[in-house]
Amino acid sequence: MKVNQRRPKILLIGAGAFGMRHLETLLRLEQKNVLELAGIVVRTQRSRELIQKKYSVPVYSGLSDKALASADAVNIVTPVETHFELVSRCLPRAHVLVEKPLAATLEDVRTLQSKAAHSTNVLMVGHVFRFHPVVTRLQRVLAKMNERPSSVEGVFTNPLSTDTGRDIEMEMLHMFDIVDYLFNKKIVRKHAEDNGRVRTISSIYSGGMHALFKLGWVGNDKQRSLKLVFKQYRVVCDLQAQKISVYKNGAHIEMIDCASDVPPLEAQLCRFVEAIKSRTVDYPDVAVGARIVRHALMDGNTELSPGRKKVAIIGAGIFGSNCAIELAASFDVTLFDKNKSILSEASYINQYRHHWGYHYPRSQETVNDIRAAIDDFEQRYRTAIVTKFPTYYSVAKKDSKVTAAEFLQFCDRNELPYTIEDPSDMYLNNKKISVTIKTYEPIYNYDKLKSITASLLKKKSIKIRLNSEITHARIVQGGQKELTIKEGVRVHRERFDYVINVTYARYNDFCSWLGFPKKAMRMDLVEVLWMKADIPKISLAIMDGAFTNIVPSGIDGVFTLVHIKESVLRRFVPKNGLVPKNVFSSSKNSNVDTILKRSIEWFPFVKDAKISKVHYVLRGVNAYREYDDARISDIAEQGFGCFSILGGKIINSVSIAKALAGMIAK
């Protein structure tokens, strides 16, 4: 009877830990009448005795002609160094399923491709994650989205205690295979860096898709995760928990449970049986196996500077400056800024509130971000923090996005201290308010903040290049990053091992130069009023909507006034992610009169205040977060030794810098 009309007889070769998992699965499929187990080939007499004692299957010491003649197909589960010899011997006489990788060298891979082309037997490679329930479900999710992601991030690590010293990429090539299975794209550029036994691999695929994988051995737990980023969507896969989470514009919209009664290995072996019986079945063949080995063995080495590695930081605001301070101990750091002074844009044109969390009742994520950062910041900038004055948060009776009860519950839940107390009617129109709380949330003294930062930069011997605009960047042969620098009329180029992009609203300029995926950014051109008022220090904020707030500065009698709606002269999400050249032209349409009029409705004393100056600042925030007004800070590891930071709040600047230093430290 032909094999396509009966159960195929399969011989298992290999009795290691994974080989025993194959044995258990083959026996289970034999009970289901899917196949017949012809036996198992082992290397030692001890293995033979142990298996014979536990299982009623033929056991062979070594691969004999007799054992091979008993089978229609073989399942090779042995170390990669043996794959070439075993496949070469078995393929002329039987169908072959060989565990990944196909072979240890590209030369052996090419030879096996040739042998497979001249054979009538199936040669299937055991890329088992193609049969994982999360991956198979993800394929259906992606088909509905009708677009490819701009970037893919994957983590595949095992506990450090299981490390046997094997090559990281050849042993952990599942991420290459998953991306190949989902998108069928080739890697055109690759960069790899090792940190202990974890390798970070940055790749650019044909069509421009970026991938960043962390592979290897670390910690005590297995990690298996995949994240795909689209223009509006983010798809996060937990392969351990077998769940897929879908986010749209930052909001969680769907959780997919992918749990299956059929383990991936069983699904893979069933596909092998189907391929034996019908050549029309799709399976990971020798071409797939060869492609994945080529991806794993593709040269990703980077030529780094001799001695201390060179780091360029673009942007000398509070975030960029703190990154320089943290990295200076281990790297040769150069800090660039197009302005004539550090901390001169968003770090300066700011309401200097030292956030405790009251301002974000709709974003627990932002509150958590603030609370995680506060100790690091205060340790560095304690003397720049101004305390001992009252701060009032008031919930409007009308048009607030939170009720009085919800705001108080939010404060209690986060253990934010307060008393319910109304300020004087000269400060606040209490008739328009449903509840007011009094706190002592501090502010920063900008001059001291800048002085402390400048002193630390000098102490760390950081090269500070002011009046230096970075106009372009590219990755050169060997992996270094070449920056084009404009200093006055002089334009020149310098190379660095790492580049940190901390340019706030101009975040995507850097991404566009290097072809990295752009972040969806909302741009706000904000008119900030500086006013003088003969009153003590006091901070007032109306929650939570298109209202107004006033915050004292470090100078007595000087305050900043911003109306959440009227101070925004222009708000937009650019299609290309880039800041338009004429963005500040809207500042000609000053809205000072309306800002004052709308603010006086809430703060009566403003009518007697004097406007001393008006500043304009371009804010860049994560787009489409109006539903919770989140202001979190994040680090994007873009690969190829490049990182981009989008700062949310000044209070996060030190903790973000420390996190970055940890990410690139060796």
UniProtKB/TrEMBL annotation:
It comes from Candidatus Kaiserbacteria bacterium GW2011_GWA2_52_12. Residues 9-127 form the Gfo/Idh/MocA-like oxidoreductase N-terminal domain. This is Uncharacterized protein. Pfam families: DAO, GFO_IDH_MocA. Residues 310-501 form the FAD dependent oxidoreductase domain. One of its GO terms (molecular function) is nucleotide binding. InterPro entries: FAD-dep_OxRdtase, FAD/NAD-bd_sf, Gfo/Idh/MocA-like_OxRdtase_N, Gfo/Idh/MocA_Oxidoreductases, NAD(P)-bd_dom_sf. SUPFAM superfamilies: FAD/NAD(P)-binding domain (SSF51905), NAD(P)-binding Rossmann-fold domains (SSF51735).
